[in-house]
Amino acid sequence: MTPRLVFDIGVVALDAHYDAFSTVDPNNPLDDPDRSGDPLPDSPNLALNLGLSYHWLHDQGVKTGVSANYRYRSRVYFSPYHDEAVMQEGHGVLDIGMDIRGHKERWSLSLFVNNLTDELYARSIVRLDPVVGTTRFWGEPRHLGTSLEYRF
Questions:
Q1: What is the pTM of this model?
Q2: Which domain holds residue 117?
Q3: I need a surface site. Which of 52, 66, 95, 150 has the fewest CB within 10 A?
């Protein structure tokens, strides 16, 4: 774009499936053990990252910037069994931020909001029937933060 305006894009397309694989699902031992054609665990068909940032220079070399980043991940299964209980639907997360940097970037102050839309999604899901059941490890909810940095 321009030195001030930067657009980043990253795309990953996967077709990750078992060619030939057999294993018994401990949660459903009577199911067919042939997993051929099933997707590999934690392998989205599509992952997308879009970023946009804009920076401008002030007097005495002070620089201000704003940014936004969106990441999307399509549906994944967290086990080799193609089990709906351990499946996470596709989801997207939006982060935004702003910063100010001193001359030669010796200091900076940043403010950010991650997961701006408060998207609820699992980073991992584990199914351990019948004792524990299904446990979800959730992604971070919306949160606001700040950082202050000084370089010697």
A1: 0.86
A2: 5-150
A3: 150
pLDDT tens for the chain, 152 residues long, are 467 999 999 999 999 999 999 999 888 888 889 999 999 999 999 999 999 999 999 888 899 999 999 999 999 999 998 889 999 999 999 999 999 999 888 999 999 999 999 999 999 999 987 788 899 999 999 999 999 999 99
Q: Which tokens sit at 10?
A: 């990253």
Of the candidates 141, 111, 110, 136, the one whose C-alpha atom is nearest the C-alpha of residue 124 is: 136
The dihedrals phi and psi of 140, each to the nearest 5 degrees, come to: -65, 135
Domain count for the chain, please give it.
1
CA distance 148 to 135: 36
